[in-house]
Design goal:
alpha/beta; seven-stranded mixed β-sheet; 7 helices; 34% helix; globular
């Protein structure tokens, strides 16, 4: 409930307009992915996504202090992922796969960090590994245009991991969809 209020407030504050090139998704686990230039991105998108959608967020930022951790886990029900290359004792896919297996959806920012909002950084491979583990999952691209006159959130047509699609081809294809 609080997340919905924050999402609505973020949409009003950023003067967000939502455009859909595709109908709203049917119920079920989906993987939404978007470019990322602002901390408001997932709050704005939260207001336009199905109820049980978990943003996937960086633990090194969102678990840094009690307030951020509370927002991420208790308000937005985020899945926190450790981005450090040092500790790989915990597979970051486990929590994401668990959410999908419960029928929930995920919101990923495949660039792995915030960008400038104009150009996309190369996509990290997590979305590929997730799609390989759950190839039946529908991937919904969302492009956020950050403009001074208001944000535009554009839901693009869904896609899937193609059979035998190599990782780099998949990542480049998804990045091209968001260009």
């Amino acid at each position: 409930m609080i997340a919905d209020g924050i999402g609505l407030g973020a949409r009003i504050l950023t003067l967000t307009r939502v455009r859909r090139d595709t109908p709203s998704p049917a119920p079920g686990p989906h993987i939404f992915f978007s470019n990322h230039a602002s901390h408001f991105d997932f709050a704005v998108l939260r207001a336009s996504l199905p109820r049980f959608t978990h943003p996937v967020a960086a633990a090194d930022y969102w678990a840094l202090n009690a307030f951020r951790r509370f927002l991420a886990l208790s308000v937005f029900d985020a899945v926190l992922v450790d981005r450090s290359a040092v500790d790989r004792s915990h597979d970051p896919l486990v929590l994401m796969l668990s959410a999908l297996d419960r029928g929930h959806s995920l919101l990923l920012f495949p660039e792995g960090t915030r960008g400038d909002g104009k150009t996309l950084r190369p996509f990290r491979s997590g979305i590929y590994h997730l799609a390989r583990q759950r190839p039946e999952s529908v991937l919904y691209p969302i492009r956020i245009h950050h403009r001074a006159t208001g944000w535009i959130v554009n839901f693009r047509p869904p896609t899937y991991l193609l059979p035998n699609e190599p990782k780099l081809d998949f990542l480049h294809r998804l990045q091209g969809i968001l260009q």
